[in-house]
Amino acid sequence: MSVEVAGMGHARGEGPLRIAVPRGALLGGTLDALDAIGIDTSEVRGESRSLIFETEGVTLVTMRPSDVPTYVEAGAADVGITGKDVLLEQHDRVVYELLDLGFGRCRMVLAGRKGDESLGESQRRLGMMRIATKYPRTAERHFEQTGRQVEVIEVKGSVELAPLIGLADGIVDLVATGRTLEENDLEVREEILECTARFVANRVAHKLRAREVDGLTAKLREGLGR
Amino acid sequence: MIHPIPPGTRDVLPDEMRELRRLHLAMIEVFESRGYGEVSTPAIEYDEVLARGDGRTADSAYRFFDERGDLLALRSDMTIPIARLVASRYQGAKTPLRLCYLANAFRAVRPQRGQMREFAQAGVELIGAPAPDGTAEVVDVLEATLDAAGLDRAVIGLGDADLYRQLLSEFGIEGEARDAILGRLAAHDLVGLEVELSELEGIGDEQAATCIALSQLRGGKEVLDEARSLGGAAVERATARLGETFEALEARGVADRVQIDLGLLRDLGYYSGAILEVYDPALGHVLGGGGRYDELLKRFGVDLPAAGFALYLERVHVAQMEEEPAAGGKA
């Protein structure tokens, strides 16, 4: 067993394929997609606090969605599922994006306080807006591409707070239903992009375990009804 | 007192150094035994000279001015300096030339595991030997080098650098659209590729499907037939080149560890024809790569076909260590 531990963190040529499964908002959709292709996810759905679940043929490894590219890039997981928002924020991670899984649909938006003109005013009079976000690189890229200067302020927690108490003029954040914005008296000013869950693979696993990776991709694609 | 060193660089202490040295010696021994003589070139060169080889490596180069105001650059690989060396020092020499190196190169990348800004590469350059035999010799040396490093499970991916350039020209896709598609292919972003292709005017569904299907073809010789069934002149030419190369490998008895991969793209601009990538199941990163660069020497004024490979010494070392328990477990 010590061999198994020593092998952690690297792609392995043998043993069951390791699938990185995102906890949080994408977990339900991910488990449904895995169920649909015949992978038993009942243990993950249970009360267990384990992080690693052995099932027939594959090993499911659960983690934060934002850690999926890290594990997959290093080959500690062979394939994984995570949001496009995560992939865009970490776009320098080398993972192969094989399939749009369609679920977990949400929008990355620029939002400001209702009836508040500080976004426009700051841009006009100060030459730049202050934007709070958990996605600093995606936000920076968006404003750069649209030719506007911004000061991006990275926050870790509830980003809605920032414009309410004057840390920022607006926020860039993910919106699924829009309820959180509504409750905090914020409104969408711009749509940046639409995000869904994606199936990704490690570069070496994609080459050396081609049959298994292709098989999984094909089954997932079928499961989507395409 | 802790005195910092720049990100992406590192010190090597004796225990590691001993292992690296052993690995280095084992590799050089293989190179020398195959007739490849070791060369050394300056770490700094004139930017103008390096840019002659590949304008695109310019992206991540370290540049600075010397006291005369000349623009210098740190080399970002050894292939271009060796092309310069061959053009300058071996005028009229008998070919093929067989040269090898172990040298540090520099790229201003975002440092992370397996991706340093200063890194050691070990490799060979075979100059004046055309495809497919020249390519087969390089693969042969590469396999012997991997064996000497104890990586007998390593796999070599074999692709074609011209396939997509030619395919997209055949489809009439040029300029920015072509670069966008090549970018998606290089990153292997299939979702983005599909979107990019569907938004393009003047490309049919069937052509788009061909492009996507090709990028997924990898495996034994049978993938060449699968590729051919997709049709088109570019595919026909690429599969013919790959087929010839693979036959030359078979003739040398070194085809077993080679995986034909039509999805392979290397990001260096000077490759043409066969391209190589090296993987080991113990490591999630690519160990190295190479291929043919038949047009590169021309840019330095000598028209010679050439091929070579480079392995990242540190990554080979990591893989070597990871393979140890695996080998022990099997025994």
How would you describe what is shown here?
The complex is a heterodimer of chains A (226) and B (331). Chain A has eleven helices and eleven strands. Chain A is an alpha/beta fold and 226 residues long. In chain A, a hairpin with a 3-residue loop joins β2 and β3. Chain B is α+β, with helices and mostly antiparallel strands and 331 residues long. Chain B has a nine-stranded mixed β-sheet. Chain B has a three-stranded antiparallel β-sheet with strand order 2-4-3. Chain B starts with 13 loop residues before the first helix and ends with a helix. The mean pLDDT of chain B is 91. Classes of the chains: A alpha/beta (226), B alpha+beta (331). Chains A and B meet through α1, β5 and α10 of A and α7, β8 and α11 of B.
Radius of gyration of chain A using CA atoms only: 20 Å
Number of strands of chain B: 12
The overall pLDDT average of chain B reads 91
Q: Rounded to an integer, what's the Rg of chain B over CA atoms?
A: 20 Å
Going by helix content, strand content and strand pairing, the class of chain B is alpha+beta
State the end-to-end CA separation of chain A: 41 Å
Largest sheet of chain B: 9 strands, mixed
**Class by SSE composition of chain A:** alpha/beta
Q: Helix and strand string of chain A, N-terminal first?
A: HEHHEEHEHEEHEHEHEHEEHH
| Mass-distribution shape of chain B | globular
- The low-pLDDT segments of chain A are 1-11
